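Question (not urgent): is this output format expected?
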Amino acid sequence: MRRQSRVVRRSGVRVELRPRDEALLCALARFRLARTSDLVALVFRGVRRDTATERLRRLFDAGFLALRVEDRSEENVYSLGLIGWRWAEGQGLSPGRPPKGGWEHHLAVVRTWIEVARALHGTTGWRLSCFRPEWEVREFCARRGEPLVPDAIAEISASETNGQPVSVRIAIEVDLGTEPSRILRSKLRRYRDQLLGGEGLLGSDFCLAVVVGKVGVGRLSTIRELLEDSWPGLWRTWTLDEGPRDALGQLIESGARLPLGTPLAARGGEVG
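Got this back:
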């Protein structure tokens, strides 16, 4: 029997949404696009991978999810399907359209978002109170005329200590090695100007993290040299493969001493 293509829906599939499905749809409304592995890591913790992928398949067949495949050797990339989009709007969400092309950087930001949330899950006292990816930050900056658009902003907070809330704000850049180093150098100058000037989206008290994709040792060394030369504040790097846990811990330990102001906007769903 000929195997059905993974991008063709099976007919007659009906799905009754479970709480995990709803959490998945809420996340995708903000992610816009996400790979199978990232959705499994976020929503299906403790569930066998084949069970998780079959549930994703059923949600796709029922129209809650849409499926994109760049290459037959690559894993599935999901977005909201028509029914999922209508469901999200019915929940008061405002889902955004996926990018038309150049998914790699977008998907790397999504993976960073999920890994930051996972790294903080179960930690004592700390939580991801806000995460804003580039596509949400850009809309905010456009309204205010802000020239600096980080790839992401994370706000990590803890319970009040001596009556004072404790929080750490981190501007995140994702570097996949596709742009010349001068682009990052220029952006670091703008970050530095904002840090020293105390005005703009981030204020004067924030840390900087650069997340590096699958690049060579030379690129990683160049990024660290740029940070050492151009950035006067707290900074850390991590790679997409190794994850953020150690670097986040160091930033939180040092950054928690900073008197941060009001966080950027409200949190959105389980993923911050």
